[in-house]
Specification:
114 residues; two-stranded parallel ribbon
């Protein structure tokens, strides 16, 4: 297990990870803003926050087009427990909340899917 606590690229075989740790749950800063992906490997961002079209988007904001803007092949999101995909204009999914096995409310859509 590796705990990614710094916003700096992490090289792994055949890919580069771009972790976006947060230090305050009420931050109004975009934790993905530092990413300027480069190279010939697969580039994957890992971020915790609220995509601008999601509920409670005032804290930990992440732009809906963050994967494209930062040159990521995929942006793995955490914060909401529902599975939510963000297709680009061509229909490809490069950003998503994977969902978790634990819902946060009975009314939460697509919770407990993974």
């Amino acid at each position: 297990m590796h705990v990614l606590t710094q916003p700096k690229p992490v090289e792994i075989p055949a890919a580069t990870l771009y972790p976006c740790p947060v230090s305050a749950g009420d931050s109004r800063d975009d934790s993905t803003d530092w990413i300027h992906a480069q190279g010939d490997t697969i580039v994957i961002g890992i971020a915790h926050g609220s995509v601008e079209t999601a509920a409670y988007h005032a804290a930990l904001p992440i732009p809906r087009d963050a994967a494209r803007v930062h040159g990521l092949d995929y942006l793995a999101l955490g914060h909401f427990h529902s599975t939510t995909l963000y297709p680009d204009q061509g229909g490809g999914v490069h950003m998503a909340y994977s969902g978790t096995h634990e819902s946060t409310a009975f009314t939460e859509p697509d919770s407990a899917t993974y």
